[in-house]
Amino acid sequence: MRMIFRCDPALADHLPRPTPARGGLPDWLRQMPAKAHSDIHGRDIRTVKQCPPFVDAMAYGALIPLPCDVNVDRGSFSWDWDIPQPAASGHPRAPLSFHVASQFAGAPFARDDQAAIKFNSFWTIEVEQGWSLFATHPVNRDDLPFRLITGLVDADLFHDGGINFPAIWTKPDFSGVLPKGTPVAQVFAVPREATELEFDTFDDAHKRAYEKTVAEVLDRPNVYRKHFRARRGHI
To answer: Domain residues for 184?
Structure first.
């Protein structure tokens, strides 16, 4: 599976590139201890840093970076970003734009009359035929002061225009800098063909396999990591 990113030639030297998500794991995860004491268990237990599904989800796909520093003062956004005039007409120059609140009235994430911010796209994205692009909030990144609104784009067909990323700003009292390179979206390709659901009950073989697997998981640590996890990049 290839994911092709293209940008305006006038901006190529001014834009941070999207990166494999496995290379953008946050510092808090890297610094997290592998074990922590649990009063309930009366002993040290493994943290989510040792949970492969937790980490692998964060490391999947690609991260879209914020192209410049954005200054934030309690819901007011500004930036000082001197870039050339793009070669293509209709191309954005601002890192942010907005969706008015009425565009998502009644949605559970709506916040009174608060507009949604929109991270403008400076890269087009093309995936292989028959696949779509799933764009979501950077996985498990509740430390970020916004929450991206998830979307699915048929990027095998729509790949000559930028895909913008709307988000709800979740920390109204935040004042500071959202730095250049902050991951604003996590994207990965998914097959567009509809999934066929099948339902069945355990036969004897599946029952024995279930009991064996559960017993092994309960008996010792790292069973999934050692015997079931596919090889990939590690933290």
So the answer is: 3-36+46-191
